[in-house]
Amino acid sequence: MAKRMKRKSRAAQKSKPRRARTVKPIPDGYHTIMPYLTVQGAEAAIHFYKKAFGAVERYRLAGADGKVMHAELKIFDTIVMLTDENPEMGRRSPRALTGTPVGLFVYARDVDAAVRRAVSAGATLKMGVQDMFWGDRFGSIEDPFGHDWQIATHKEDLTPREIQRRWQAQPAAAPGS
Asked: What predicted TM-score, i.e. pTM, was given to this entire model?
């Protein structure tokens, strides 16, 4: 004798689990490693990065106190995340730490123009743009929030051996360096 199947209610039919969508482990537009900057004055930092690097603001989450809890900017082809300093959560800016051990290395199509633009927006020139022994034209700045930016345009493809030879041929290179 065949078992009689009970019919499910409409609510039960509607609550059927849907097929899971495939979610990418790394979302489109993001890289596997991305900078996350902590600053004193995120609002001003966002304005500076727009002016200095042509950043495009993608997203901002403000806290109840009006400070930026999380923001995402697209600078060149990279998403840069940033937040206002929050010492209670262990988030301290380079200004609070009186320096930073971390730098951001950026390849730009025109390093000279990129450094000029950043300096005119308020960055401090740390090292003027010059051709370097490793094959890049390179300069560095410090932004008004204490972050170091090394900016370069790649000019030559060199082997590690060629780079080492050029390094040792420099007048200031010490033996064994």
From this structure: 0.82
